Each structure stands twice: as structure tokens, then as C-alpha cells.
């Protein structure tokens, strides 16, 4: 009895393997590990630069902000308020004015 | 331009973290399928897993269902029928940088879009496996990315239950025959053919069937458009009803000649490009060299699927030296044509005006 077992097991493995191959899509995924680049770009020097660097760069790098068109002080206020109210940026109320002022000087409507 | 992102080639850098990478426009001249290595990238939150172990990843299906599921990638790739579809993935704010007056946001040119052949499983099959209970109204999707600030709203999007079960919405594990680059949503990405990319949730790991309409920030507040023709309002206009952005609209582009190019007068010029219908196929692509007074049909290339890019080509002769605006207009199979005036809304969404390629004939 014992001697007969092995071939049966081998046969089952072969059958199950071939079923798997036939029934399945051939696509295989491979695990991925990467490093995403970071940015050490800071907001350019000027009044309020330290405040914006300290308050804004935790959530996003500076690039997109520096790519913005010239916007009115009202529009910059709305943008900063959106970061605080909608995206929960932890900006202390006393720092909001300096950030808006910095952005308006850097990228204000001409 | 940057080549710093793993699994990606040369990309226009809009932002490093969270990544916003734009496809250089010349890529679109090479064919209707956008290579994975140059497919645009857009993330909302900076905490993006950089390591995915395919043996540990699981997709949860929960909520208003008979049976909560935790599906391994093996379950998905081997346990469900695979389907394929080519479809355009376009950011709601593609071309925002051309809005006049300018609006804040990712200042994309026209490269926040791409077309891929997506391979995956039907969302319907996954939902059926869990068993959607009567009374389900929407399905909400969430990925592995997380906000840096703990109480900020996790990125989630929802679809109506009938849309989710239409048999076209797909959970893709491959694009253009390869696994997705991590920054394009590896290992699983929702594919919502004909709809803006905000719904195409990346690194999808959580599906929740809802018995109440979704009120989360990203569905209800963000990504909304004026409920007006072309989602267009006047700058400063208030009191407009806002609705979630949804189906895409037709667009077309010249890809072999850029604005500012010089071409020969009184000699044939080959003009080539891509078009897409938005939420349906391309019926025709027409061009005009006389500011839209007369239009002529271009030849359409092979149809690779109604939701994908369609190449078009024509030969034209600019009769005399001078400046010309070459206008291209796509009409989709629902009879919707690109408008000749640009839309405007404060978020910079849904631009699809007839584009002009300005050339000098010598």
C-alpha cells in the first residue's frame, strides 16, 4: 500500500499544476521597492520666507507653488485658507498673514 | 524636465512631493499608447508606500455587502476573468495652465493625460463575489496613500452603484502589458472609462459599498464643476450650482508640428495628431486653415477602442506665405464637437476648446 502512494501524489501535483497554467492568465506581478526623490528646494529669501518654509514644506515641496501664476492677495488668501480648512495644514493663526504676504509679494497680481 | 523618478523616463517636473509629473507633449506623436515610463503622474498626499510586497497586499471589499472580502493579488489575477480595454486617463485639470484668467492649481500644459491598454478584472465581478445588498447606492474607493496630517481627509472617490456595476469599470493590474509603475498606482488601479482621472483611484486597496450617498470631502467638495454648459462660468460669478466632475469631453491635438513652427507655403504639409471622444468614440476630426470658416475632414487611424486615443492625419497646403492658425476639431460619436470658445471655471477643469497650432508659412 505504502509503495503506491508516491506516484498518486506526483500525479495530483502535475494535474493541479497544469490546470492552474491552463485556466489562469499568464500575467505575473513582481514586488516593487523604490525610493522616491525628495526636494530640498526652499522658498526664496524674503520677509516671511522662514514662516512659509516652516509651515508649508511638510506636506508638499515648493515647486508647484513657485510655478503658480500671479494671483491677487485675495486669491492667495483663499489658497492658504484652503490648505488650513480643507487639508488641515497646522498653521498657527498668527502665521497666516506672513505667508499670504510672502506669496503676494513673490507672486502677486501685477 | 526630470529623470529622477524610479520606473519613469523624462518627465516635466511640476512638483516633487507629492509627485506631479507631466508627459512631454512630443510623446503623443509616437502612437496612441502612452508609454508607462512617460505616463503622467498626479498624487494628492505625500505618504505614498514605496514598497509593495505582492504576497502581502490585499484588496478589501466591505460595507453594504453579504460577505466582506479580502482578496490577494493571486485571487484577483487567477480567480476572476481578465478583461482588456484601451482608455484615456486625463486629469480633470489637464491644460489648466492655459486658462484665462489664470487659476491656481497644477499648472499643466496638455500633458496631464495618457492612453493605455488596461488589463484587469471587472469591478462588477468583484462586487458580485461580495454580494451587493439591496439598497446600495454608491461604491467608494480608497488607496494606500495617506495624508501627512493625521486629521486631513484621506483621498477617496465614489461612483454610483449602477456605474460601478456596468461591466466596464475595471480594476487594472497591468497597463500596456506590464505591471503599473508604482507612481501610477501599482499594484491595482481603478479604471473608469470615459471619466476623469480623479476617479481612477491608485494603489486601490479598499472598496466600500455604501447605502447612503458619499459625503466625503473628495467626492462632495473637491473636484466639483459648475452645472452649466462646458462647466463654464464668468470669473467672479457666484451662486452657481456645483456638481461632481464626471464624464470627459472630446479633444484633439496636433502632435507633429508645434506652435511657432515654420512650414512651406504652396506645398503639401503633413499634419498628424491624436483625438479622443471623451465618454465615447471619435466620429470625425476636422481641420481648418481659415479661422474656422471652412472645415475639412482628416483621415482617422486604426480604432483601438472607443475610450482611447485615435490617431488622425491629413495633408494640407497653406496657399501663400503668412501666419496661420491650424484649428483641429473632434466630433465624438454622440455628436458632441469641441467648442470654439474656451471655458472658464475657478478650478481650471474640463478645458476642451478647439486648439490652434500657430505656424508661419514661408
Task: Describe the overall structure.
- The complex is a heterodimer of chains A (110) and B (362).
- Chain A has 110 residues and is mostly helical.
- Chain A has a domain at 49-107: Cytochrome c-like domain (Cytochrome Bc1 Complex, Chain D, domain 2), CATH 1.10.760.10.
- Chain A has helices at 2-23, 49-56, 63-66, 73-85, 93-107, and one strand spanning 32-33.
- Chain A is elongated, with a radius of gyration of 29 Å.
- Chain B has helices at 73-79, 123-130, 161-164, 217-220; strands at residues 12-15, 20-22, 41-42, 51-52, 58-63, 69-72, 82-90, 113-122, 138-143, 156-160, 170-175, 189-191, 204-210, 224-226, 242-244, 251-254, 262-263, 268-276, 282-288, 296-297, 299-300, 310-317, 322-332, 355-361.
- In chain B, 6% of the residues lie in helices and 35% in strands.
- In chain B, strand 1 (12-15) and strand 2 (20-22) form a beta hairpin.
- Chain B folds into two domains: 12-222, Oxidoreductase, molybdopterin-binding domain (Sulfite Oxidase, Chain A, domain 2), CATH 3.90.420.10; 251-361, Immunoglobulin-like.
- The model of chain B has no long low-confidence stretch (mean pLDDT 97).
- Chain B is mainly β and 362 residues long.
- The two termini of chain B are 32 Å apart.
- Chains A and B meet through strand 1 of A and strand 1, strand 4 and helix 1 of B.
- Strand 1 of chain A pairs antiparallel with strand 4 (51-52) of chain B, so a sheet runs across the interface.
